[in-house]
Structure formats: structure tokens, C-alpha cells
Amino acid sequence: MLRRFEQLFGVDLGTCNTLIYQEGKGIVLEEPSVVAIQTDTGRIEAIGSEAYAMIGRTPQNLQVIYPLKDGVIANFDMTTAMLKYFINKVNGRNHWFRSSRVIISVPCGITNVQKRAVEEMIVNGSRKSVTIEEPLAAAMGAGLPVDEPVGSMVLDIGGGTSQVALISLGGIVFSKHVPFGGLSIDQDIIEYVKKTYQLIIGERTAEDIKKNATTAMKPDKVLHMDIRGRDLVEGLPKTISISSNEIDDILDNFFILIVDSIRQAMEQCPPELAGDIMERGILLCGGGALLNGLDRRLQKETGVPVHLAENPMECIVMGTGKMLSYNAS
Ligand SMILES: Nc1ncnc2c1ncn2[C@@H]1O[C@H](COP(=O)(O)OP(=O)(O)OP(=O)(O)O)[C@@H](O)[C@H]1O
Ligand SMILES: [Mg+2]
Q1: Beta-bridge partners for 100
Q2: Is there an atom of ligand 1 within 6 Å of 286 CB?
Q3: Mind listing the pLDDT tens digit for each residue in 195-219?
Q4: 243 shares its domain with 134
Q5: Which UniProt keywords apply (predicted)?
Q6: What distance in angstroms lies between residue 19's CA and the mean position of ligand 2's atoms?
């Protein structure tokens, strides 16, 4: 009977974005995982979208931080405050998680201490929490037959991490995780522009370049983009034009790492499962999956079919939503 008063939530707590699924409603929240704090007092000024809008525009006494790093909690208090704020936003102010069950996704291969930190954060407020590995959640969210004796492979390219996992019979057979994702590409772009053009650009500009002037698969049409920054020598604002050819060279190292992880996963595959993957392909998800041409490039370099998920950034949270119905009893 009590269950009728319980709220059921699925949470994808990512380095860049947090998504919340509420049973009966679907995805109810999608916000950047960032917090703006006062540097002197540590007081929280803004969370989520509001804090994200401040990136690169803060006065000296304000700082925007990502409380998660490489997919795991780096700042426990800030992550708790952020999640509490998000849940209050969807659930009203009066009780955070008190009569709720939560399924929260975690990266593969995290330590028990890291996993316990996530569970403790949730249990502080809720009646029960369960963690699920992100690639498994992503596969469920995309509708792959995870429970069947057939191999599925998922490649999730997030903001802080990228993970490839082989799944069969409801479990992870092999997983490989690299601590690089969209954020490290942004940093590489910032470094490149600084070195080549003596121009300082912000994180938001670097992210724009990545989204709009990248072609992972050559020889796609060369793209050009005007970008604004601050001249390193003169200190004045300056605009330059950058081409996708330049950016693609920066991304090469990242692609090599990703292709290498796929190769390792394929090498670890028992022969029957390898046959399944060759036939059914790899599911590509996470925000990084949206890099222009990435699916075709990975397919070409690995020889394995690669399918871009329908909603790459929502697969994991949709999977936690599906898990809710299994765990509801
Ligand atoms: N169209 C796009 N092209 C390229 N990259 C994109 C695009 N849209 C979003 N991204 C990138 O995707 C990343 C965020 O993806 P996602 O929300 O899956 O990460 P996350 O789950 O928060 O991180 P993690 O899984 O590593 O903890 C960001 O680096 C963002 O810049
Ligand atoms: Mg993620």
C-alpha cells in the first residue's frame, strides 16, 4: 500500500549534465551539472542552467565548478546540494527523496568507495537507492535486448568519460573506460587556438567550435567558423576564422583512444558474442556521439557497424526509468 505514496526516480548524474526520469511522467529534468559558488565564502549562488549561463562571465568573487569529474563525485557536498536542488525542482520543496526510491547510474569500473558515496548521498534523503552501470542503462534505454543470450555493445562518449561495454544476459561481460570525453576535447581546442593564433577563448566558445566546426569523417565538406577571443599579446578582443581541418587534427588523438577501446573490447569478446556484435553493431550514445560524422568514422576504422542512438543524451536516464519498473516491487 505504501508504494502508492512513493515517488520513483531514475537519475543520470553525469559530469556535464544531470537528467531525471520520474515514473509516470518521463524525463522531468535535464540540466548542466554545474554550481556557481562565491570564492571567498563558498556560498552557492546558482545551480544548473543558471550557473551554466555564467561560465566565462563571472566576476572575480564567483566561480563555476563541475562537482563531478571523470564521471565520479569529486566534491561530495556540492554534488549533494546540486542533486537536492534538482529533485526539489521536480518534486516540490517540502521533502527531498523522503518517500522515494531512486535508481542512479554510475560509470563502470568505479571503486566501491566511489559507489558508496553515490548511494550515501541518495540514502541521506530517500528510502532506498540502487545503482546501475551506465552502459547497461544506456542499452536498456535504447531498447537493446540486454536480458537475452545475445551480445550488445555500447559506446558512451560523455563529457568527462568514455566507456565501451559488452553486455549479455543482463550483465556486463567486459568494459573499458577512458577518462576523456567532450570536456577534454574543449580543452584541446582552447590550447590549440592559444598556441596557433595567440588567442584566448572561453570554454563555451571551444564547445561551440566542437559542435559546429568538426567533421570526424573526412572528406566531408570543410566547415569554417568565426570565433572571438582575447589577443594574448595585445589584450584586445579579436576575431579569427577557424576551419574544420584544423580541429579534426586535434581530435585525432581522441579518436585513436576510442578506436583502441573498441578493439580491446572486441578482442575480449567470446567468439559467439563477437559474431553478434559484427551482425548487430555498436550502439553509440552520450553527448559526444553527436560529433559530426563520428559514427561513420568509427565504423570505417573498426570495421564494426556503428549505430547512433536516436536520442544519444537520453539513453541512460531512459534505462534507469525502465529499471524502476523492475525494482518497484
Ligand atoms: N552536437 C554535439 N556535438 C559534439 N559534442 C556534443 C554535442 N552535443 C553535446 N556534446 C558534448 O557532449 C558532452 C556531454 O555529454 P553527456 O551529457 O552525455 O555527458 P555526461 O553524461 O554529463 O558526462 P559523463 O558521462 O562523462 O559523466 C559535452 O562535452 C558536450 O559538449
Ligand atoms: Mg554520461
Answers
A1: 7
A2: yes
A3: 999 999 999 999 999 999 988 887 6
A4: no
A5: ATP-binding, Cell shape, Cytoplasm, Nucleotide-binding
A6: 10
